[in-house]
Amino acid sequence: MKSNLLLSISVCLLSLEGAYAQLNNVPGHANDSLDFNSFRVMVSYISADTQTLNIAEIEKNSVSHLGEHHQLVTPIQFMPGAGDNMPGFGWDNWLPSVYNKEATQGSPFFLPIYVPGLVINQSYHVISSKDYLFNYDKMTGNLLMKRGMESPIAIDREQVNAFCLKVDQGGYIFTRVPLINTNEFFLVIYKGSKYSSYKLYKNRFVNANQKTNGYTTEGKNYDEYEDIESYFIVDERKQEWNLFELSRKSIKKMLASESVAVDLYFKDHRYEEITESFVSHLLASLNR
């Protein structure tokens, strides 16, 4: 999980570097607009290498389910000592089938720990304190905050316009995108003058569903917090948005009006995997 986390961090930094360079050229927004000034503040904050959070040491699941005993079939009841001579008797006909339930996988939280951050409220005031630590709950869509050893609380989402989470080297910016949905916080992949891209996280809990007939086993023997991720491209000039997938076909379809430039970019980067970083660099090239 740590490698995936570090990859996401680097992706975020790459997109934000491009975003920062584009902020002064966003049509429809004054250079000193509150929205983009607050975005600059968050970019600067997460770009500073000021944190010393060793996530690897505490990136552990705090709830262990190892050794749990689950009965999957009901044993046939019969009198003690009366089985060996019964026609067609076999131990696998009456012994209960069991399995060990593994530790829960995944998490409803965006990060494995609470980290420093900034909050931009609806009045575009920057809320910052070294005593506050933050995380994001993907299941509820709430920004969580804790202070010291106190229990975390969910901040009234109506009071939050955007926020950022600072990690070891980089961080993440979440913002409202009213054009898409006024009620959600979207992770910024890239923010530019012509095109922007965002990611929406959802999360659901899936119970273990392993089954066996004594011979074969199917399903998962662990509970899981499953992420549901959606990607969006916003045409800032037309104020239109579209869903897309991390595939060449989907991206080309969403950017059909830029087909020449997109085709050239894909040709020049034909061996690269289609990731969030790829999308960020592609949009950066289109925003120049």
Task: Kindly summarize this structure in a few lines.
This protein is of the alpha+beta class and 288 residues long. Helix content is 24%, strand content 31%. The chain has one domain.
As laid out across the biggest beta sheet, the strand order is: 4-3-8-9-10-11-14-15
Spans where pLDDT lies below 50 across 5 or more residues = 1-32, 56-99
**Can you count the beta strands?**
15
> Number of DSSP helices?
6
Q: Tell me the structural class.
A: alpha+beta
Q: Describe it for me?
A:
- It is a single chain.
- The protein has 288 residues and is of the alpha+beta class.
- The protein has one domain.
- It contains 6 helices and 15 strands.
- The protein has helices at residues 2-22, 34-47, 55-58, 248-254, 259-268, 276-287; strands spanning 68-71, 98-101, 117-121, 126-127, 132-137, 142-147, 153-154, 160-167, 170-177, 181-190, 195-206, 211-212, 217-218, 224-235, 240-244.
- The strands form 4 sheets. An 8-stranded antiparallel beta sheet has the order 4-3-8-9-10-11-14-15. A 3-stranded antiparallel beta sheet has the order 5-6-7, with no helix packed on it. Strands 1-2 form a two-stranded antiparallel ribbon.
- It is globular and about 60 Å long.
Secondary structure elements and their pairing?
Blueprint: H1 2-22, H2 34-47, H3 55-58, E1 68-71, E2 98-101, E3 117-121, E4 126-127, E5 132-137, E6 142-147, E7 153-154, E8 160-167, E9 170-177, E10 181-190, E11 195-206, E12 211-212, E13 217-218, E14 224-235, E15 240-244, H4 248-254, H5 259-268, H6 276-287
Looking at this protein, list some descriptive labels.
single chain, 6 helices, three-stranded antiparallel β-sheet, eight-stranded antiparallel β-sheet, globular
